[in-house]
Specification:
By secondary structure, the chain is of the alpha+beta class. It is built from 16 helices and 14 strands. The structure holds iron/sulfur cluster (2 copies). The site of one iron/sulfur cluster has 15 residues, from helix 13 and helix 14.
């Protein structure tokens, strides 16, 4: 029997030991992003104007498709199962075009991410764009960073109440406009707008607007960066798409460190000093509230506003821009090796500069050819291939289609004169927004003729039927063959449809069944 002291004690510690445990839920620290100015901010304004313009205005664009089709340029007509995109009309069986476009969007995202990092997150993601829009409203009403922080920390006064109410009311209006714009893609926008305001729209329209108003207001106004950090899976996935030649927003500590607000004192004391003056301008503008100088972080959406902020500081100091810049990991590593004498010491600014203070020739700079590498060629090739395939298919697709279903039960009927009759459901698809007369004929099956059930078309080997614009016409057709013409229990023949005006045609090979004894 062992006593207590003889039991071996292992050196192990629980990862969530009570001594070190952090609460799983950390209260949100409020972020008050300062307004940035610079080329990336201007580019973001442009992207914001384009994306919001496309979203809000597209349902109001008109497109003349003639008197038999809707005039809305982009319309998801769910009730009639049609998707209109300017001159393109997609039927349900052509949904592969939409699937193809989604695959192209996915591959395009791989391509963009592998070259310029999380550009989607930083510039075009709806969450980023709407948060930016909500921040514009917030700044216009409450002021820039310092004024907002002061207002937030101050007591509730009539002014604060008025500012806050105004801000939230405008946010809700933006949310409602966002939800409203969404439903306009599913019905004629001017008509639906009138119905919405007169209370005659379908309940689902009001419910959709209410849900989208609430989500836009909550995600764009209240949760903001938390959506990107905690809810969105994309930052996790994108990390797997980056490689050492992908551009990411990078703090170049090989030239920034050691950072100091007292460069002159340090230099006078003979200590090395980097370009970073530790002004925190990069942190103040960050909509995610992070410090890029801590290295790559999941929270960073690569909006590049910290680049603008730091470039502004460098300009004031008369130093080269690019202390924070888009850089590849391979360039960054090469420069770090240079600045640390092969990794043998801390960052030493003189190692990356010449005696005159300019950057040494050995400093690696990004070159656009780094974008073109096998990986990006594969993405580009795949993307182009899908695009060309879709385009070819779109330009050569049939607008007159034919589907035939043979009756399952009975497979055939023997008539009183001994002839054999088979029944078929013939579906004619007129996929253009104009009425047409379609000639249906049969080829093969010697001696046979057709009759159309419920129609007084005389029996024969062809007949003509009118088909409404953009509609499917279903016919019940009997095919009869005299017994002495039957050659096999299962014979194939062809249904052919033709529009004599446009010369479009289509064919379907069907089977004619007969009993063994009929031969
Ligand atoms: S660290 Fe820079 S790039 Fe990243 S989110 Fe913040 S401001 Fe944008
Ligand atoms: S803005 Fe530039 S100089 Fe200022 S703290 Fe950030 S990295 Fe350093």
């Amino acid at each position: 029997m062992l006593d207590n002291t003889q039991v071996e004690r292992l050196e192990a510690e629980a990862v969530n030991s009570a001594k070190t445990r952090q609460p799983l839920y950390a209260a949100r620290k409020k972020i008050f992003p300062k307004r940035a100015a610079g080329k990336f901010r201007r580019f973001k304004w442009l992207v914001m104007a384009i994306t919001l313009g496309i979203y809000y205005l597209t349902p109001w664009l008109r497109w003349d498709r003639g008197p038999f089709a809707p005039v809305q340029a982009v319309l998801l007509d769910v009730a009639n199962r049609r998707f209109y995109l300017f001159f393109i009309e997609i039927w349900p069986q052509e949904f592969f075009y939409v699937a193809g476009l989604l695959v192209m969007a996915g591959v395009g995202l791989f391509l963009i991410t592998s070259t310029v990092g999380r550009a989607w997150c930083g510039y075009t993601c709806p969450q980023t764009v709407w948060v930016d829009l909500f921040l514009v409203v917030e700044r216009a009403i409450e002021g820039d960073r310092n004024a907002r922080m002061k207002l937030d920390a101050g007591p509730w006064t009539a002014r604060k109440l008025m500012l806050r109410v105004s801000k939230h009311v405008i946010w809700l209006v933006i949310g409602a406009a966002t939800g409203g714009a969404w439903i306009f893609y599913f019905a004629d926008a001017p008509t639906l707008l009138g119905e919405l305001f007169t209370g005659t729209a379908a309940p689902v329209a009001y419910i959709t607007v209410a849900v989208l108003t609430a989500t836009t207001y909550t995600f764009g106004g209240l949760m903001r960066e938390q959506v990107c950090t905690y809810m969105c899976p994309w930052p996790r996935i994108q990390a797997a798409m980056l490689d050492e030649n992908s551009l990411t927003v990078t703090y170049n500590d090989w030239r920034g460190e050691p950072r100091s607000r007292h460069a002159k004192k340090m230099l006078a004391a003979g200590q090395p000093v980097g370009d970073c003056v530790d002004c925190n301008a990069c942190v103040a503008v960050c909509p995610m509230g992070i410090d890029i100088r801590d290295g790559q972080q999941l929270e960073c959406i690569t909006c590049a506003l910290c680049i603008d902020a730091c470039d502004g500081v460098m300009d004031k100091l008369g130093k080269e821009r690019g202390l924070i810049a888009y850089a590849t990991l391979s360039d960054y590593n090469a420069n770090m090796m240079l600045a640390t004498a092969g990794g043998s010491g801390p960052v030493s600014p003189p190692l990356v500069r010449t005696a005159g203070g300019a950057f040494s020739d050995q400093v690696a700079h990004f070159h656009v050819r780094k974008i073109f590498r096998p990986r990006t060629y594969v993405y580009m090739g795949f993307w182009s291939l899908i695009g060309l395939g879709l385009l070819y298919s779109l330009l050569t697709r049939d607008r007159l289609e034919l589907n035939v279903l043979h009756d399952r039960n009975p497979q055939f009927v023997t008539l009183s004169d001994g002839s054999i009759r088979n029944g078929y459901t013939v579906k004619l698809l007129n996929m253009i927004p104009e009425p047409r007369t379609i000639v249906v004929s049969m080829r093969g099956l010697e001696g046979a003729d057709m009759t159309v059930v419920g129609d007084d078309i005389p029996a024969g080997r062809s007949f003509a039927v009118p088909v409404e614009p953009d509609r499917l016409k279903m016919l019940k057709v009997f095919v009869r063959q005299p017994a002495d013409q039957i050659r096999a229990p299962a014979q194939t023949f062809t249904f052919r449809v033709e529009d004599k005006a446009s010369l479009e045609s289509n064919e379907y090979t069907a089977t004619f069944n007969a009993p063994e004894a009929a031969r």
